[in-house]
Specification:
The complex is a heterodimer of chains A (251) and B (387).
Chain A (H helix, E strand, L loop, with lengths): L10 E10 L2 E11 L4 E5 L6 H8 L7 E6 L2 E2 L4 H8 L2 E4 L11 H11 L5 H14 L15 H13 L5 E5 L7 H16 L3 E5 L3 H7 L2 E6 L2 E6 L1 H7 L3 H11 L2
Parallel strand pairs in A: 3-8, 3-9, 6-7, 7-8
Antiparallel strand pairs in A: 1-2, 1-4, 4-5, 9-10
Helix pairs in contact in A: 3-4, 3-5, 4-5, 5-6
Chain B lengths: L1 H4 L2 H33 L30 H35 L3 H15 L3 H13 L8 E3 L2 E4 L2 E4 L1 E2 L3 H23 L11 H22 L7 E2 L2 E3 L2 E3 L2 E3 L1 H27 L3 H9 L4 H31 L3 H4 L4 H12 L2 H30 L9
Antiparallel strand pairs in B: 1-2, 2-3, 3-8, 4-5, 6-7
Helix pairs in contact in B: 3-4, 3-8, 3-10, 3-12, 4-8, 5-8, 6-7, 8-10, 9-10, 10-13, 12-13
The chains are: A alpha/beta (251), B alpha+beta (387).
Chain lengths: 251, 387
């Protein structure tokens, strides 16, 4: 599928600015993510991590600079946005499953409606991805009947069913209990090993060490530091980074 | 014996029996006291009056009515009138409420302001004043000779005259049922688990059944058509008066309009609350999956909002149904007014009030039951599997 698309980075961000009213949430962000690359973004609360990845799939609109996803610039051209939206999957902190649909229906709705897949085919795909996130037996249940970890895995399967080229994760494990965190991270590690382009906001430093190609540290709407995980964790010279690391790794 | 009393289920059953028993005893005592008092005053009680003719007439009825009809027939007329007024009012109030409620949740500032103004004004004027206002307005419309005309309808101080089909009553009723079936049956087909066909691939049978039902309706209308008359009977001026068509009296229009506008302001708040209750996260998830804003609305926002609204909406409907008793204020012969007139003419106060209460209980309990079923059917599932 890749060959049909223009080559170049999966995501290219240049001089990105974003305001909420008079509040300057993102300041001159530059970031380029190659196809197949795994990026982990961390930083203190309110530093703009969510805002940044939400700009990538247009849940927020930027007001300065440029974002190009898979070679297409995100601007007010509706056609562009529609085409790109389906290539970018997103997993949220609070799962955001559709409570009035079964797990299977959650996974089928977008392929059927957006990609116009026949239902039988969409169902096969959905079951395959539910298998992949290791909950095939929950297909006919409703989200409220699942544990948090199971719900988050459904959310991952739901996004994967659209067969996106890029996956965004916004603190996917921060509301989960420790054993459930492991379930979800396992799925994410598998996904990474299969070559998916991933941009993950997370404070799971073990995960970052294991799969990230680069770790990005944000503070006050800026990218403060950007380094491969080993260098990031061991030899960061930046005062803010070290203070943050001592807080997350401290105990 | 003691151990039996300690059983939770047995205890509950005993308490229930005690409760029902004491209630029945109270009612019985009241009835007996009332009977004795009435007998002392020389008033006979009983339901014989139901079968005597009324001796008075009603100003609006969907059923044939003359002064010779018995009282029970008039009660039926009253109930049908109340249902007609109530249903019209509820449907209109729902339409108004949905539009205003959506305006209140819109991202457009002007729409929000208009919606808020509407709610603030109409929710805070008592219903009875609104009924009087519309009634005064309608009765000050031009006389039949200078009637306003629109779409074959005539708007006059004597009421709204609408064209009716020149079709026999039975055929017309049957055709209406067929039209309802044309809507309801495909909906049912789309949800029933009894069909082997997978959900979503049923549009062909749905379309076919709808077309079939509509064809039946057309045939019924053609067969039941009165000979030598045009299909539609248009109202027209003849001499000083209007002939033809169906006259909807000003009383009905004023009541239905007031219920629609007043009820609409309450329903708007329910609609707004329902949409507010839908998590932003679900809509963002749908958007991030590539669904268009319209699809996000129909697939996620509306279904979730409906689930949040329905229980409160059911209460509101029951409440508005009771508001039809305002009919007596402007002289519309709804159930309540017929009851009041019957009391005047027959003197059987207690019996007639009993009938009134039973009638309204029946109407409102059925309404509540229907809503409960819908609620149950679509409620978000908790701890059990579906089906
Ligand atoms: N819709 C909004 N309106 C106004 N301000 C907002 C909005 N969304 C975010 N902000 C502000 O923008 C800043 C960055 O928010 P963002 O959610 O991106 O932070 P974050 O790094 O993801 O934090 P956290 O770790 O708590 O999720 C915060 O100060 C926040 O208050
Ligand atoms: Mg965040």
């Amino acid at each position: 599928m890749d060959s049909t698309l223009p080559s170049g980075p999966a995501v290219h961000i240049e001089g990105l600015d974003k305001h909420y009213g008079s509040f300057h949430a993102l300041r001159k962000i530059n970031l380029s993510v190659d196809r197949g690359e795994k990026i982990v973004i961390c930083g203190p609360s309110g530093s703009g991590k969510s805002t940044l990845i939400r700009c990538i799939n247009r849940l927020e609109q930027h007001d300065g600079g440029r974002i190009a996803v898979l070679g297409t610039e995100l601007n007010d051209d509706v056609g562009n946005i529609d085409g790109i939206g389906r290539e970018v999957g997103m997993v949220f902190q609070h799962f955001n499953l559709f409570p009035h649909m079964t797990v299977l229906e959650n996974c089928m709705i977008a392929p059927v409606i957006v990609r116009k897949r026949p239902r039988a085919e969409a169902e096969t795909t959905a079951r395959r991805f539910l298998e992949k996130v290791r909950i095939p037996e929950q297909a006919m249940k409703f989200p409220s009947q699942l544990s948090g970890g199971q719900q988050q895995r459904v959310a991952i399967a739901r996004a994967l069913c659209m067969q996106p080229q890029i996956m965004l994760f916004d603190e996917p494990t921060s509301t989960l209990d420790p054993e459930m965190i492991a379930e979800v991270l396992d799925v994410m590690v598998t996904l990474a090993s299969e070559g998916m382009t991933m941009i993950c906001v997370t404070h799971e430093m073990g995960f970052a060490r294991r799969v990230a190609d680069r770790v990005i540290f944000m503070d006050a709407g800026e990218i403060v530091e950007e380094a491969p995980p080993e260098a990031f964790f061991t030899s960061s010279r930046n005062e803010r980074t070290r203070q943050f690391l001592s807080q997350v790794l401290g105990h | 014996m003691v151990s039996l009393l300690r059983n939770q289920k047995v205890r509950n059953a005993l308490l229930q029996a005690l409760y029902v028993g004491s209630l029945a005893a109270t009612v019985l005592a009241c009835v007996m006291i009332a009977r004795r008092n009435l007998a002392e005053q020389g008033i006979t009680s009983g339901f014989d009056f139901l079968f005597k003719s009324t001796g008075w007439d009603v100003n609006f009825s969907l059923l044939p009515a003359t002064a010779n009809d018995p009282n029970w027939w008039f009660f039926l007329i009253g109930i049908v009138n109340t249902l007609f007024l109530g249903t019209t009012g509820l449907v209109l109030a729902t339409i108004v409420g949905t539009i205003v409620g959506l305006a209140r949740t819109s991202s457009n500032e002007l729409a929000r302001l208009l919606g808020r103004t509407y709610v603030d004004i109409f929710r805070n004027i008592p219903l009875i004043l609104q009924v009087f206002f519309w009634y005064a307005l309608i009765t000050h419309l031009p006389t039949p000779r200078a009637a306003h005309e629109a779409f074959g309808m005539l708007l006059t101080s004597r009421g709204l005259y609408v064209p009716v089909p020149n079709v026999g009553g039975t055929a017309l009723a049957a055709a209406m049922l067929a039209v309802i079936a044309a809507i309801a049956f495909p909906v049912w087909l789309g949800r029933t688990p009894r069909l082997n066909q997978p959900f979503g691939e049923r549009s062909t049978i749905q379309l076919a059944s709808a077309a079939g039902a509509l064809a039946c309706a057309a045939i019924l209308l053609a067969v039941g058509r009165l000979p030598d008359l045009p299909l539609l009977d248009f109202p027209a001026l003849q001499g000083l008066n209007l002939k033809g068509g169906l006259r909807i009296p000003p009383e009905f229009s004023a009541l239905a309009g007031a219920i629609a506008i007043y009820g609409g302001s309450y329903i708007a708040e329910i609609v707004r609350g329902g949409f507010k209750a839908v998590g932003k996260g679900q809509m963002e998830a749908a958007l991030s999956l590539g669904l268009s804003p319209w699809r996000v609305f129909t697939q996620v926002r509306l279904p979730l909002a409906l689930r949040a609204m329905l229980p409160i909406l059911a209460n509101q409907y029951v409440w508005l149904m009771k508001a039809t008793t305002m009919g007596i204020a402007v002289g519309f012969t709804d159930f309540f007014m017929i009851v009041a007139l019957t009391i005047n003419h027959s003197g059987q106060t207690l019996e007639v009030i009993g009938i009134l209460m039973a009638g309204f209980l029946a109407i409102n309990l059925s309404l509540a039951a229907v809503f409960n079923r819908i609620n149950k059917a679509i409620a978000l599932k908790g701890n059990q599997l579906r089906g």
